[in-house]
Specification:
Strand order of the largest sheet: 5-4-3-6
Radius of gyration: 31 Å
Number of helices: 15
Order of helices and strands: HHHHHHHHHEEHHEHEEHEHEEHEEE
Shape: elongated
Structural class: alpha+beta
Strand content: 5-15%
Number of strands: 11
Bound molecules: zinc ion
Distance between the termini: 79 Å
Length: about 475
């Protein structure tokens, strides 16, 4: 097979011009494998061209820092960065491994198998005698060609070979580990990593345990897509680390993150999603009650005293203090999130007045002491949200009336909620209250039940 064959393949040339609905069944059956073979040949040709560029040191333009970046951008959108990287890697290793290249170009070997074999032979275990390498290469090509061993089988074989010669396989080499967390322009944080198989196993096991779907109160399926459930699971892992980690923990206090927050930003001006639009915002941001519950604290901008002014959405015209809630690493935080986090002090808010001066706020005003947490565990036993029941260790103590609005930190004003339902209570029209039976009750949003008939807490009945 070769480039000549691509030109000479009349079958695919005919198909390119054909009106597909006119083709016979036999033509379809013969056409698909012929196209697959041609695609492979064209891919091999592309790898050959890239290899030639690499050898000659061709620099396609000055805009793209590497051949990989250039490849991913030309033509734009057809190759991901990962695919482009694999093409460049394959092109490079095949130059040094003509036997593997021949098997790949002939169509006997898929690209991923060729890459794995060539990479192994290029960098064999140090204790493997050099003269054995061609032998192993031949055997590996034979066993993987024409639909032999798949990629998993090949990996097993390579792992065993490395093991036999006393080398740590790449999958288990922790020196190759990388983990990056970088902030984007809009304030989010992008996470990227490459870890060894054991770490990956720990991560996947933890994510799988923590990301199980949570059915709704009526048994309806969890509305979160899988990626969101995995993200929630990751958040839960971090939270548990902070709960039992190196930070000072006393009496149930959980001071994890530090947030600089104006006392006015904690007052009840975020609407809490109740949509009743009562009055104007008390904090002087110019916003109105009942509209900011799920949104950004748009009226608040980071002022000149913020120290991290690069993160602020603007400057000057914010709240009287000139500084909306600010986190130490990632900058501004919406008032809605600040209230939820401050509920059980997963953050340590440093409360400041309008002049930016820290105020003394009694610990008893906001922290849930260990004795109260124990009493809450006896009463609620788990996340109290109907149908949830996540274990108490996963829960926050939610203040029904926020402490910043004068709510007491006691049994009559707190309820255990897992992080998911804590967020739901703060950001939606779900409400919680303590009934005459001294137990939590949950009032669903009008969209779910027009009568908003309260539902008993998880594991309780409406008796
Ligand atoms: Zn809360
Ligand atoms: Zn829950």
């Amino acid at each position: 097979m070769g480039i000549g064959e691509i030109r000479g393949d009349e079958q695919t040339a005919t198909l390119l011009d054909a009106e597909l609905w006119r083709l016979s069944d036999a033509q379809l059956i013969a056409g698909v494998p012929a196209v697959t073979a041609q695609i492979h040949l064209l891919q091999a040709l592309r790898v050959g061209l890239v290899g030639e560029m690499t050898d000659r040191g061709v620099v396609p333009d000055r805009v793209h820092p590497s051949l990989k970046n250039w490849l991913a951008a030309h033509p734009v959108g057809l190759l991901s960065e990962g695919e482009a990287a694999r093409i460049v890697d394959l092109a490079r290793v095949l130059r040094a491994q003509p036997e593997v290249a021949a098997a790949y170009e002939s169509g006997a070997l898929r690209g991923e198998l060729a890459l794995a074999i060539a990479a192994f032979c290029e960098d064999p275990p140090p204790r493997m005698p050099q003269e054995r390498v061609p032998e192993y290469r031949k055997v590996l090509i034979e066993h993987t060609s024409h639909g032999g061993l798949g990629i998993q089988g090949l990996r097993r074989a390579l792992t065993k070979l490395r093991d036999d010669y006393g080398q740590i396989p790449p999958a288990e080499d922790t020196d190759r580990n990388e983990f990056c967390a970088s902030q984007t322009l809009n304030g989010r944080v992008v996470i990227k990593g490459d870890v060894d198989s054991e770490t990956g196993e720990m991560l996947l096991t933890a994510l799988s345990k923590l990301s199980a779907p949570v059915p709704g109160p009526g048994g309806e399926p969890d509305p979160r897509p899988a990626a969101l459930r995995r993200a929630d699971a990751f958040i839960e892992m971090l939270r548990r680390f902070h709960d039992c980690g190196a930070g000072p923990v006393e009496g149930g206090e959980k001071p994890h993150l530090t947030v600089l927050v104006n006392i006015n930003d904690l007052h009840h001006c975020d609407g809490d999603g109740d949509g009743d639009g009562e009055g104007g915002c008390e904090c002087g941001c110019g916003g109105e009650a009942g509209q900011g519950g799920k949104g950004e604290a748009a009226g608040h901008s980071s002022g000149s005293g913020g120290g991290r002014s690069g993160h602020g959405p603007g400057s000057g015209s914010g709240s009287a203090g000139g500084l909306g809630p600010q986190m130490m690493w990632t900058g501004p935080l919406s008032r809605a999130s600040t209230r939820r986090l401050a509920c059980d002090c997963i953050i340590t808010p440093i409360i400041i007045n309008n002049d930016g001066v820290p105020l003394k706020l009694g610990r008893k005003d906001r922290l849930v002491p260990a004795s109260l947490r124990r009493a809450l565990i006896v009463r609620d036993r788990c996340c109290a949200f109907p149908g949830c029941g996540r274990p108490a260790a996963w829960t926050d103590a939610h203040h029904i009336v926020h402490w910043a609005d004068g709510g007491e930190t006691d049994l009559s004003n707190t309820v255990l909620l897992c992080r998911y339902h804590h967020r739901l209570i703060h950001d939606s029209e779900w409400e919680v209250f303590i009934g005459p039976d001294l137990l939590p009750w949950f009032r669903p949003p009008g969209s779910r039940d027009p009568d908003r008939k309260p539902l008993p807490a998880h594991g309780r009945t409406a008796a």
